[in-house]
Design brief:
It is a single chain. With 222 residues, the chain is of the alpha+beta class. It has one domain: Jelly Rolls, CATH 2.60.120.620. The protein has 3 helices and 13 strands; from the N terminus they run αβαββαββββββββββ. The strands form 3 sheets. A 7-stranded antiparallel beta sheet has the order 1-9-6-11-4-3-2. A hairpin with a 2-residue loop joins β12 and β13. The structure holds 2-oxoglutaric acid (AKG) and fe (ii) ion. The site of fe (ii) ion (FE2) has 3 residues, from loops. Its cofactor is L-ascorbate.
Length: 222
Amino acid sequence: MTPNIATPSPALQPATQLTLVDALVEQGWYVGREVIDLELCAALNQELLHRAAYNGLDEAGIGRGQQHLLRKDIRGDAIHWLDRESAAQRRYLDAMSELQQALNHALFLGLFEYEAHFAHYPPGAFYQRHLDSFRGRANRVISTVGYLTPNWPSDGGGEMVIYHPDAPSQEVARVIPEAGTFACFLSETIPHEVLPTRHPRTSIAGWFRRNASLGGVLDPAR
Ligand SMILES: O=C(O)CCC(=O)C(=O)O
Ligand SMILES: [Fe+2]
């Protein structure tokens, strides 16, 4: 038998969708290690680090539209919205689109759109505890985070802490931001934070959205 080199490995481990749906229903969040294909992580990481090195990132803020504010005391990452520019981005976004279909099929969520950005946290950066759905705009339904940094050092910090939805000071999980790890949670109910990192930290944060048109104002993605 010749090895089947023509078939690319899937972007996400095939068993992920079922486990993920179950975990979302049971506890509102999911974390899996070695879920995202490592070659894909490496390509995305390289693209992000290249942008970071050539000033191709924007400082991240909080709030949308005219309420958008730069607050380094709240979050310290720099971002770039995914735009399908590279093959790696397209492969990641296509995998998210398959996940969107699986979520709609299993949970009738009516998700219709996905927005995502690269995030680079330089040493010292963090993101204080928050919810991902902006107040008055309940349009982000499910959050995803794909981690891209290989060989995360054990003293690197930068873990994402997930808190209990009903007791926001109770920690329920700590996620090491190691390449291949994928996290997913309910945007409106799961408080989470990024602890100060000591090592450059790279990821893709993304959100499945429902259409939200409030008071005649359309709310497009981003
Ligand atoms: O990078 C992470 O672990 C989480 C980032 C986050 O909470 C966000 O961008 O809203
Ligand atoms: Fe968040």
